Write the C-alpha cells for this entry.
Amino acid sequence: MADKKADKKPIGEVIHFYDKILVAIVKLNGALKVGDTVKFKHGEDEFSQTIDSLELEHKKISSAKKGAEIGLKVDQPVKDKTKVYLAG
C-alpha cells in the first residue's frame, strides 16, 4: 500500500450559494479553519482557494467543527452539491 496521506474524502459539501455576494454555505464533514486551502470540485469544474474568513450564524469565527453549516466567501461561483476538499 502506498504511504501517501492523500485523504480524498470531502470535508464538506455546498448546500447553498448566494451568487450576488459569492458566499457558499458549506455543511462540514470535518474541521476547517481560516488559513486552510480548500478545493471545490463539481464534475469537471474545480478550483482552489485559501480560506480568508468563516462565518457561523452571521458571526466571524476562526475555525469550525464537523457538522457545522458555515458561510464561506468564494472566489468563483459554485453549485449546490459541490464537494469541498482540503488541498495539499
Notes: Residues 11 and 29 are 5 Å apart (CA to CA). The radius of gyration is 13 Å.
